[in-house]
Amino acid sequence: MTTLGKHAINVDIFTDAYRVTGRITVSSGGLVAELANPNSDYLDVEDVYVSRIHEPAKIAVHYSEATFRKSNINFVVLQDRRDGIPTGTIHGASIYSRGRPMSVFLTVPAFEIQGTVIHEGKPVAGAILIQSTGRFQSIFEAHASAHLYPDISYSGDLILVQKERIGIFCLDPNYRKG
């Protein structure tokens, strides 16, 4: 579905116990803008497939639409970072892609996530979480593994992680992408 400057993107949304695959309609600001929208605590998803984290190949239910309370989302996996963040303007790069890359490891309920953050400031884990924009932390070239079932994993060009759901956040400021 597309309407005036909006387009549909494919997402994998993870809660404490479920993976939900579906489509979300976003504006040019990407999914970050939808998640940061202060006018709604909910996120609408279309063509929804729900599976349990420990049974990813088994579809528990399928519905044409669902609504998520944003605060219950642990993280969202996107295959293309351009679906999640504004990629830039005629004035330069997006604020989400300026800075230096640093390797991170973090935990949320049921999952461990590894990837790269891009940060302009001091390489301090707490500062990154405080200074990054919005309620969701962008993790690029990311990989999420179920901590009880390490063979169950998901990868994406971008994973948006709800900051309030992060239990551990580890940073390697010496990381240099080769």
Q: Identify the CATH class of the largest domain.
A: Mainly Beta
Query: Can you tell me the overall shape?
Result: globular
* Helical stretch tally: 2
Number of domains: 2
Q: What is the radius of gyration?
A: 16 Å
Annotated CATH architecture of the largest domain: Roll
The number of E-state strands comes to 12
Q: Mean of residue pLDDT?
A: 88
Range of strand content: over 45%
**Helical amount among residues, as a percent range?**
under 10%
Question: Which residues sit in consecutive blocks of at least 5 with pLDDT less than 50?
Answer: 89-93
Structural class: mainly beta
Widest beta sheet: strand line-up = 4-3-2-1-5-11-10-9-8-12
Order of SSEs, N→C?
EEHEEEEEEEHEEE
What gap, in angstroms, lies between the N and C termini? 39 Å
Q: The biggest beta sheet, please?
A: 10 strands, antiparallel
CATH topology of the largest domain: SH3 type barrels
How would you describe the overall organization of this protein?
By secondary structure, this protein is mostly beta strands. It folds into two domains: 7-75, SH3 type barrels (Roll); 81-86 and 94-172, SH3 type barrels. It has helices at residues 30-36, 125-131, and strands spanning 7-14, 18-26, 42-52, 59-69, 75-78, 88-89, 92-93, 100-108, 111-119, 136-146, 153-162, 168-172. It has a ten-stranded antiparallel beta sheet with strand order 4-3-2-1-5-11-10-9-8-12, with helices on both faces. The radius of gyration is 16 Å and the shape is globular. Mean pLDDT is 88; it is low at 89-93.
